[in-house]
Amino acid sequence: MYHYIREGDEAYPWFRYLHIEDFKKQVSYFKHHYNFISKSEFFNSIEQKEPVEDAAILTFDDGLIDHFEAAEYLAAEGLWGIFYIPTGPYQTQKLLDVHRIHVLIGKYGGQEILLTLEKTLRESYIQNEYVDKFEKVTYARQDNDAATKQVKQILNYFLDYQQKDDVLDVLMQKYFPDEALLCKDFYLSPTQIKSMNNMGMVIGAHSVTHPVFSRLDYATQNNEIMNCFKLLDDFVPSNSIKTFCYPYGGDHSFNEDTLMILEKENVDFSFSVEQRDINAHDLIHKKQALPRYDCNQFPFGQASMGLKRAEMMANS
Ligand SMILES: [Zn+2]
């Protein structure tokens, strides 16, 4: 599983990403140590419910613009990958929450964002109980990593979805006033997605708004899945495989309702995140929650850090 794959950008001194050169080194490492199976071998193994020894396939989450170059590289190497696209940004011209947090912290650092977040919470309608909770955990402002952790904690656990959206709207207004333009530079365009499919890449669904599915009721989960597939069908009518992957991943990120919807929709297979190989049992009983490793579990997969962050680590 891959996310950001890019070169460093001075404008984002705190951003964490896999350097494109490390990605290429890792692909060649996999080529030497594993069996990169073809699309048809993989689909066959899913259908026959028989794992292939030492097999490897690559997946890419979040529809990031980075993935166009990655796809071109794979195609040149005679390889393929599955690219899981969240469709919300194509309708709202806004970044997903998870990416808004990455760009805010990546460009301005955790301390700056924490201070603004604190001010926003005080000035906005979000009062008392959240601010109380918030104050109890406000500490270690000297440490940028601690501040980053705290920003994520507040946004992800202290606020409900609507409040989180509102607060992120305020932060984005201040730091990235032209979010529609940022969005265009951040995600794959529909044309790029189509051209990746023509290169032999598989296009999969990754929900509309990238929520934690287990926190949603059946109807909302159903909409998230159906509407994502629907828009991707418009983008890439020729994409014949129906595959999905859970935002965030892990057993806690989905529930029985999610599995029912995927089965009802005849989804061929789905990926979760669980650091182990796919075995025969998975192919028979867990086709809609196949395990998957993060690229950082393998050589060359460690994240590169923005310049500021690297400096800070060197000095500490
Ligand atoms: Zn994701």
Structure description:
By secondary structure, this protein is mainly alpha-helical. It has two domains: 5-94 and 182-315, TIM Barrel (Alpha-Beta Barrel), CATH 3.20.20; 97-181. 52% of the residues lie in helices and 9% in strands. The protein is built from 15 helices and ten strands. It has helices at 20-33, 39-48, 66-76, 88-92, 97-108, 110-123, 128-137, 144-158, 161-175, 179-186, 190-198, 218-235, 256-264, 280-285, 307-315; strands at 5-6, 16-19, 35-36, 55-56, 59-61, 82-85, 202-205, 243-245, 269-271, 304-305. The strands form four sheets. A three-stranded mixed β-sheet has the order 1-2-10. A three-stranded parallel β-sheet has the order 5-6-7. A two-stranded parallel ribbon has the order 3-4. Strand 5 (59-61), helix 3 (66-76) and strand 6 form a beta-alpha-beta unit. It is globular. 33% of the residues are buried. The structure holds zinc ion. The site of zinc ion has 5 residues, from loops.
Reported CATH architecture of the largest domain: Alpha-Beta Barrel
Label the structural class. Answer: mainly alpha
- Ranges where pLDDT stays below 50 over 5 or more residues in a row are none
Shape: globular
What do we call the CATH homologous superfamily of the largest domain?
Glycoside hydrolase/deacetylase
> What is the quaternary state of this protein?
single chain
Bound molecules: zinc ion
CATH topology of the largest domain, by name, is: TIM Barrel
* Main sheet record: 3 strands, mixed
Number of strands: 10
Q: How much beta, percentage-wise?
A: 5-15%
Q: Helix and strand succession?
A: EEHEHEEHEHHHHHHHHEHEHEHEH
Radius of gyration: 20 Å
Overall pLDDT score:
91
Number of individual domains: 2
Considering DSSP H and I runs of 4 or more, what fraction of the residues is helical? 40-55%
Separation of the first and last Cα atoms: 31 Å
Which CATH class of the largest domain?
Alpha Beta
